[in-house]
Amino acid sequence: MSKITFLGAGSTVFAKNVLGDCMLVPALQGFEFALFDIDEQRLRDSEQMLNNLKQSLGKDIEVRAYLDRKDALRGAKYVINAIQVGGYKPSTVIDFEIPKKYGLRQTIADTVGIGGIFRNLRTIPVMLDFAKDMEEVCPDALFLNYTNPMAVLTGVMNRYTKIKTIGLCHSVQICTKDLFEHLGMDKEGVKEKIAGINHMAWLLEVSKDGVDLYPEIKKRAREKQKEKHHDMVRFELMDKFGYYVTESSEHNAEYHPYFIKSRYPELIERYNIPLDEYPRRCENQIKGWESMRTELVNDTSLTHVRSREYGSRIIEAIETDVPFKFGGNVLNTGRLISNLPEKACVEVPCVADRSGITPTYVGDLPEQLAALNRTNINTQLLTIEAAITKKREYIYQAAMLDPHTAAELSMDDIISLCDDLIEAHGDMLPEFTGEKAVTVTN
């Protein structure tokens, strides 16, 4: 029996989306859906939910929960990763509250920035443990990574393990659709080309019947900017740099040095920036889970409509040899994007079929867009250096190179902030505790 293993299966809603999608694929009938999570209660919730869904849909698959990770992985053909290391408390709270004491404000803190750096540092060792188990019990499995920070974690898996890894995000497939809906434009028949890095990929081309739609998009966007709306940061970036970016305004507000600035507090109101958005979202999800749990876990008539997630479609393409094109995160091997570093993880069009996943060549990005990408890649690569070498000074350098952090804090304060964050993480970052290192070594 072929096997799909879901790591972080306690994410019940997401497990329903991705594995529910897989249940609807005829080629995956007869598969085992193996579930693993360190939270046994949430694991059992997902097991019950998926078994209810299986019965309701009348599908021929086996749902099985495992308490041993290696057993869950053993013999898997595909592994789906959706973990969060450290959870909302204590980790997310640490990521927001300690920087706030230094006057450094954030919105989401899960990609780059000081919050993204420390989310990476506590997640990378777990990912490497996954890879070690997989190399032993399912070395040929395809690892589909949904966990953020996407670029760093996917990059680590591809650079430092033998596991074939593709990084998957939601932002590419909804970028043009959401933009056109917001501007009141018809997306039917529109052609698009998107490439860059995760959460900062660019809508490079957008046309219909051979007509470039960017002039109309920019005209409507300028009108929109005269009133408050949810996408003001992205429209401002498009106005100044010429292209629309895939990820939301709340994310992009903290990827750049232009928007969250203590010297210019009026920018928060001007661009409608939701500071501390992720903690609010987490609190609401926690409060809403119990009522949702009753509806989701105990509903024996539960049903499912296939979502827009890429996971099931990639697996289906590999199983059936019917090609599927998608935006994926891969190493920039061979300079797929020729003006970004080879060590970077880039987000480019990819094709899945029976031969696996083949990324496509993009060439040069417009130079201003590559420059913006490189500001985030710098921090990503230094964060990887910190995690692999266990040298604290690379954490400092990653933070010093982050555009938002560097625009707000002095070098001394950045070092002090990193030290405070390391101390607060305690046993979650044991390799960095001990004597503080403030000098650079070779």
Explain what the structure shows.
The chain has 442 residues and is α/β, with parallel strands linked by helices. It has helices at residues 12-23, 40-57, 69-73, 87-101, 113-137, 150-160, 171-183, 214-224, 232-241, 249-252, 266-270, 277-297, 311-320, 367-389, 392-401, 403-408, 411-425, and strands at residues 3-7, 32-36, 62-66, 78-81, 142-145, 164-167, 191-197, 200-208, 211-212, 244-245, 324-331, 345-353, 356-359. The strands form three sheets. It has a six-stranded parallel β-sheet with strand order 3-2-1-4-5-6, sandwiched between helices. Strands 7, 8, 9 and 10 form a four-stranded antiparallel β-sheet that branches. Helix 1 (12-23) links the parallel strand 1 (3-7) and strand 2. Helix 4 (87-101) packs antiparallel against helix 17 and helix 5 packs parallel to helix 6. The radius of gyration is 22 Å and the shape is globular. It starts with a strand and ends in a 17-residue tail after the last helix.
Range of helix content: 40-55%
Q: What composes the largest sheet?
A: 6 strands, parallel
Topology as a string of helices (H) and strands (E): EHEHEHEHHEHEHEEEHHEHHHHEEEHHHH
* Count of alpha and pi helical runs: 17
Strand order of the largest sheet: 3-2-1-4-5-6
Provide the residue-averaged pLDDT. Answer: 96
Give the overall silhouette: globular
Radius of gyration: 22 Å
Please provide the count of β strands: 13
> What's the multimeric state?
single chain
Distance between the termini: 50 Å
Beta percentage is 15-25%
Low-confidence stretches: 437-442
| Structural class label | alpha/beta
